Amino acid sequence: MIDFGFDKIALIGAVALIVIGPERLPKVARTVGHFVGKAQRYVAEVKAEVNRSIELDELKKMKTQFEDAARNVEQTVHSEFNQHTTDLQRDWDDAATAGLAPAVGTDSLSTPVPEYRHPGKKWRLKRGAIPHWYKQQAGIRTKAQSGAARVARHRPKRWS
């Protein structure tokens, strides 16, 4: 890029002052500054666009690498699973021909699963086991009271 030092800028300013004149020089300087700013913004936008496209290309390459790695892992797991399945089936068939495996349909290897039973927690009983003095101190209600009764209880008394 062109390197402008102080001496070159001063020389350009002096020539501009002589050629353009002192009346029109501020307006011309403002216009030149405006165009230089536009050019700098344009160059910055182009640089940013180039950087974005480079980053996008890098991300696409990284994405393909990850997809290839995931595909390789999937194929490896699938092949290992198939190999172990065939080995297990072969061992099972060998045991069945030797008479060691149980007949199909019998459940001698599995244990019976117990039926679900609700735990039957007695939270009311536990709540009733709390001493009365502690309930009063902690502010736990011991008797049910309707909303209207609760409001009436806390309403200030009327003066007669």
TrEMBL record:
Its main location: membrane. Keywords: Cell inner membrane, Cell membrane, Membrane, Protein transport, Translocation, Transmembrane, Transmembrane helix, Transport. Residues 151-160 have a biased composition (Basic residues). It is found in: Cell membrane; Membrane. It is a single-pass membrane protein. Residues 138-160 are annotated as: Disordered. Pfam families: TatA_B_E. Gene3D superfamilies: 1.20.5.3310. HAMAP family: TatB (MF_00237). Belongs to the TatB family. The Tat system comprises two distinct complexes: a TatABC complex, containing multiple copies of TatA, TatB and TatC subunits, and a separate TatA complex, containing only TatA subunits. Substrates initially bind to the TatABC complex, which probably triggers association of the separate TatA complex to form the active translocon. Part of the twin-arginine translocation (Tat) system that transports large folded proteins containing a characteristic twin-arginine motif in their signal peptide across membranes. Together with TatC, TatB is part of a receptor directly interacting with Tat signal peptides. TatB may form an oligomeric binding site that transiently accommodates folded Tat precursor proteins before their translocation. This is Sec-independent protein translocase protein TatB. It comes from Aquincola tertiaricarbonis.
